[in-house]
Design a protein that fits this description.
The structure is a homodimer of 326-residue chains. Chain A has 2 domains: 5-144, 2-Layer Sandwich (60s Ribosomal Protein L30, Chain: A), CATH 3.30.1330; 160-314, Phosphoribosyl-aminoimidazole Synthetase, Chain A, domain 2. The first copy, chain A, has helices at residues 12-25, 65-78, 99-116, 169-179, 193-201, 216-228, 243-252, 271-282, and strands spanning 38-53, 59-60, 63-64, 83-94, 119-128, 134-144, 160-163, 208-211, 231-235, 265-269, 291-297, 301-305, 311-314. In chain A, strands 8-10-7-11-9-12-13 form a 7-stranded mixed sheet. The first copy, chain A, has a 4-stranded mixed sheet with strand order 1-6-4-5. In chain A, helix 2 (65-78) runs parallel beside helix 3 (99-116). Chain A is globular, with a radius of gyration of 21 Å. The first copy, chain A, is built from 8 helices and 13 strands. Chain A has 326 residues and is α+β, with helices and mostly antiparallel strands. Chains A and B meet through helix 1, strand 1, helix 2, strand 4 and strand 5 of A and helix 1, strand 1, helix 2, strand 4 and strand 5 of B. Strand 1 (38-53) of chain A pairs antiparallel with strand 1 (38-53) of chain B, so a sheet runs across the interface.
Chain lengths: 326, 326
């Protein structure tokens, strides 16, 4: 069956779609009440975040827009030191979308949510004119345990910045699909909880964390430098990139420093904690390619010490003429 | 200036758009930290809701998609008896959207949020291929005071259902714009807080509330009847519709019972509270056309006592062949 305008009318066709697809996979006590809003009991500090997902194609190597939509918001909550708990899901369906595709994506969201330990407690679906596309917004609430103070404004001179793994995989995967290049590059789309869990369990004092998504590492480092009023000095040779992504980006003239990821993060610790933190996350499957990439200095902006021994300023990404990749 | 792909890249062009438009209007302490998520202190029961807005045209008589996007989620929170506090805003911008239009819409959201007493604490913007369109998701958190128990499952025999005013205005307004009919019908797009405030301040025991949006009154009454396992008997002559909307819908063969609204609600009280509740909300500007429209009976489904003295079953809306109106 194809999605049509009746599915967005709020009437019986909408209700059937809810029951047959969303209700089948997002089944929980809160959602099944079908009220205007979920009612939840919360006590303490929370993180509250939103993200919209417009990736095209909606299915790709390593994931799909459903998995991505859960990972993205869950990761944003994790990056504030929170334990993700509740998500909402807002769908925009284009007319002509195959309901089998929608069901596969909803099932993928449910599976990813279950793995992340979050409940989808409220949702909304609209239908627009189009050619079978699909966009998903997720918003999330996570609980922040007492004593966690994670902020991009916390960096100070001497701190060390660690990246959790190889860069550029999501970007290279989506771009390959869009321009029709055959390769084996998979999106890194995933939930960063194994890494944050390992850090907190081992009592590493994390000062700042951020997932490295749109805009890439270069952009996140600039945001950190600006928020903390300091300079960041990055070592070119320390930036982890797989051989396949390196080859792909060399051919297309892309810089992994600005390529998007969906399962990578950086975090900042004091110099004393750096080796221990690196050792700990390298024990996790997700963090096995982690690397110390940068140090925090006095000053402003991001400077790269290049392979050849020179220095160059690393600006934020301006924008891209290439097809959108997230 | 027109929106282009660079504005969605997560780099400098995105950051400039944030600063020049979103930062200018959505300025508050939480948002200005520019972290991955807002950090908030919450204690107690909350309502958590999401809604996506795809109305076309994005500007219409009585409002715009920005105003609508705040009213919609704020109203969903109000309908659970909550005091709305925090919103997130997720934008999907189509390439070619004029940034002046975007700014007008963002300003409208900020004004409406301020009137509703809510803060926009987190946001996200994506850019997609298109022809200058715009879609907005808002998700919201509201605090539920102790002792409130509002649920569509609370109806029991003898209860009375009151609608807050004339039906069909949003639907007629948007449809007029889409099919090019000139008239003076304005959308009722607005925040229902004056009505909920009046009810709670006067200690009316509200059993259930719902805003009457997509699907119209007929659909909401069916949802209530099903959730509570009862029948609802509606009086045709009691349904408030303005003369202009009545004329418009007669010409097009539309039934106000299924037309969408964006500033109307129904609520359910016991028979003893009905006259007092009606009197109270009729004192508010927003509720001046309120009317007792239905009674709760044993049985199932929704029955209408018609103008001519007959009875007919009122089903949910199935779907519509007409242009989408919300």
């Amino acid at each position: 069956m194809k999605i049509n305008m009746a599915h967005g009318s709020g009437g019986k066709a909408s209700a059937e779609l809810m029951k047959d697809i969303f209700g089948k996979y997002f089944n929980n006590d809160v959602l099944s009440r079908m009220e205007d809003a979920a009612v939840l009991q919360i006590n303490g500090k929370i993180a509250f975040s939103t993200d919209t997902f417009v990736v095209n194609p909606i299915f790709f190597k390593g994931g799909d827009i459903g998995k991505l939509s859960v990972c993205g918001t869950v990761n944003d909550l994790l990056m504030m030191g929170a334990e993700p708990r509740y998500l909402t899901a807002g769908f925009i369906l284009e007319e002509g979308l195959d309901t089998n595709e929608l069901e596969t994506i909803v099932a993928s969201m449910a599976k990813t949510a279950s793995e992340a330990g979050v409940y989808i407690v409220a949702g909304d679906t609209k239908v627009i004119e189009g050619i079978g596309g699909l966009y998903i917004n997720t918003s999330g609430i996570g609980l922040i345990p007492d004593g966690r103070d994670i902020s991009s404004a916390n960096l100070s001179e001497g701190d060390v910045i660690i990246v959790s793994g190889n860069l550029g995989e999501h970007h290279a995967c989506i771009l390959s699909a869009r321009i029709g290049i055959e390769n084996h590059i998979h999106s890194d789309c995933g939930i960063l909880e194994p890494i944050t869990h390992a850090l907190f369990e081992n009592e590493i004092k994390v000062k700042a964390m951020r997932d490295v998504t749109r805009g890439g590492l270069g952009t996140v480092l600039n945001e950190f430098a600006e928020a903390s009023g300091c300079s960041i000095e990055i070592e070119e040779d320390s930036i982890p990139v797989s051989q396949e992504v390196r080859g792909f980006s060399d051919i297309l003239g892309l810089d992994p420093l600005y390529m998007a990821n969906e399962g990578k993060m950086i975090f900042v610790v004091s110099n004393e904690d750096a080796d221990k933190a690196l050792h700990i996350i390298k024990q996790t499957e997700m963090g096995k390619d982690a690397s110390i990439i940068a140090k925090v200095r006095q000053g402003k902006g991001v400077i790269m010490k290049t392979h050849l021994g020179g220095s160059r300023a690393v600006d934020m990404l301006y924008g891209e003429g290439l097809p959108r990749i997230c």
